[in-house]
Specification:
Pfam families: GAF, HTH_17. It comes from Pseudoduganella albidiflava. This is GAF domain-containing protein. This protein has 247 residues and is of the alpha+beta class. The protein folds into two domains: 81 residues, Multidrug-efflux Transporter Regulator, Chain: A, Domain 2 (Orthogonal Bundle); 132 residues, GAF domain (Beta-Lactamase, 2-Layer Sandwich), CATH 3.30.450.40. The protein contains nine helices and nine strands. The strands form two sheets. A six-stranded antiparallel sheet has the order 6-5-4-9-8-7, sandwiched between helices. The chain has a three-stranded antiparallel sheet with strand order 1-3-2. Strand 4 and strand 5 form a beta hairpin. Helix 1 packs across helix 2, helix 1 runs antiparallel to helix 4 and helix 4 runs parallel beside helix 5. The protein is elongated, with a radius of gyration of 19 Å. The two termini are 20 Å apart.
Length: 247
Amino acid sequence: MSDTDDPILTTTAAARLLGVATSTVQMWMESGAIASWKTPGGHRRTRLSAIDRLLERTPGGSAATVGQAVEAALSPVSPAEFQPHQAPGYPVDRGEAARLAALETSRLVDTAAEARFDRIVRLAAQVTGSPIALVSLLTSTRQWFKARVGIEAQETPREWAFCSHAVLAGEPFVVEDAAADPRFRDNPLVQGDPKIRFYAGVPLRDSAGLALGTLCVIDREPRKLRGAELQALIDLADIASEEMAKG
């Protein structure tokens, strides 16, 4: 298993995941309660899978709460931003913890705009005739736009993200009329700006196949995608995934 699939954690990161003091984790590692090893510099390290197994044996240690805890542990944002003991207000599956860890490993969130991704969203908008196109990355608390055209916002709450459904579907996900869809009709992005009516998103995957986010197009009118338009969106998503894998 690669570092992308099962990232290495410091004692501090493991302590945040488990909700205990770093000294406690160090003691557990020294005693063998947590599988670990020492670096040449004498620092203890463990794998996410070792901590994940402990959390699975802990009340409330569902895949969703583990996923939120992973980002709290690995993110430079204060852990106070996260609420790991509450179920998220968006759909997830059992792979969410690994997906969030892979997103952190990518180091793409909160980075500067890049021409390679800006070109992709411009092309996605053009080939589908859509006013809005995004490269959207899904953290446990927000959807953050690595590239965007047709919209000013840099991010929205994760609970509002159509892209959560696209990542869960694992394939192209299309909503032809969000106002008529019970999953989305009350969504703030449908009721307010940008007044989404049409959405089509394709998962963006890392080299291990984990979906970090989506390439999506949005319209303010209900519509369908022609077969050629959908194929073009899939092809552009493949190119974006390849670019992400380059780092």
